[in-house]
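The following block was generated as part of the benchmark described in Methods. Ligand: S-adenosyl-L-homocysteine.
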Amino acid sequence: MTVSRAHGIGFTSQRTRDRMVERLRAKGIRDEAVLAAMGEVPRHLFVDEALASRAYEDTALPIGFEQTISQPFVVALMIQALRAGRNDVPLGKVLEIGTGCGYQAAVLSRLAKEVYSIERIGGLLTKARSNLRELRIANLRMVHGDGANGLPEAAPFDAIISAAAAQVLPVALKSQLAVGGRLIAPLHVSAGGPDQALCLIERSASGFSEQWLDPVRFVPLRAGKQ
Ligand code: SAH
């Protein structure tokens, strides 16, 4: 019998993924579409084989280049905040800053019409492309660049999500948000200080509103590409 790596066996099986989803639910994730997407994406494909047995723990894990795959709960929480309870409406056009291994991009691609994801480390983007190959995702474009500049050629975006923490939100990102759109990013609560929290920004016809959510711990947003 052949079992594809995406399908998984034992601690990478559908049952293990279902248990992860139940834990997310117990921790307060309510958006069924987000839970379903996270139940579908095989997270073990996005970490080294040596870490596959830990792929469905609710924890960040190393992915090389001193970066991490985000904690499932935080991925779910951020996407749930972007969707704002609009259960039947897909996310539209989404920009992700920090592709990393590509996991969150794969989850987003199931909930959005189009996803653009920018990564500054070329080696990680190569890894992400190879991780994603087996999943054959048609509505995801990956770009090598500095996400602090956003992606002017594809703007405006209905949703923007950052997987790296900035001291201060780059102005380009706010300006590339569509009216009616939402942006979520980990930010330093005070620039220069250690504490980070999720910041949710909404753009309406009359301007921007800002809301601080949970405290978090993300890798830093760095300038330039390598
Ligand atoms: N989205 C990933 C998490 C990646 S960790 C997941 O699904 O788990 C955050 C990523 O942001 C790292 O890969 C890091 O290299 C990247 N990053 C940091 N600063 C960046 C920038 N200015 N532009 C694009 N990517 C950046």
